[in-house]
Amino acid sequence: MALIKCPECGRQVSDQAAACPECGYPIRKVEYKSVTVSHRLGGGYGGKDEYQRLLSEGWQVVDERLEESENDDGEVYAVHWHYKLQK
Ligand SMILES: [Zn+2]
């Protein structure tokens, strides 16, 4: 972690801070990504590798939503986790 000078007010701010605590100037642009991990019941996972790679790169989950897929008989055959990540 390094300290940088806020371009707006001149205060020393961590370069990891999203915004200057003094004046609110945005220091670091927050990026968002979304990834879906699917688990087919009785089958395998999809998207899990990408999800784990993003976590290992420092992305953090800020929102998750579960969705189920049903066949014509109303049986769930797959579940999908939709993750929103921010870095
Ligand atoms: Zn500032």
How many helices does DSSP assign? Answer: 1
Helix content: 10-25%
Binned strand content:
35-45%
Shape annotation: elongated
- Count the E strands: 6
- Could you give the order of strands across the largest sheet? 4-3-6-5
Broad structural category: mainly beta
- Point out poorly predicted stretches: none
pLDDT averaged over residues: 94
Q: Characterize the biggest β-sheet.
A: 4 strands, antiparallel
Q: Which cofactor or ligand species appear?
A: zinc ion
N- to C-terminal distance = 15 Å
Q: Rg from C-alpha positions?
A: 19 Å
Topology order in helix (H) and strand (E) letters: EEEEHEE
Compact description:
The protein has one helix at 48-56, and strands spanning 3-5, 12-14, 32-40, 45-46, 60-70, 76-86.
Descriptive notes:
With 87 residues, the protein is mostly beta strands. The strands form two sheets. The chain has a four-stranded antiparallel sheet, covered by helices on one side. It has a two-stranded antiparallel sheet with strand order 1-2. The chain starts with a strand and ends with a strand. The structure holds zinc ion.
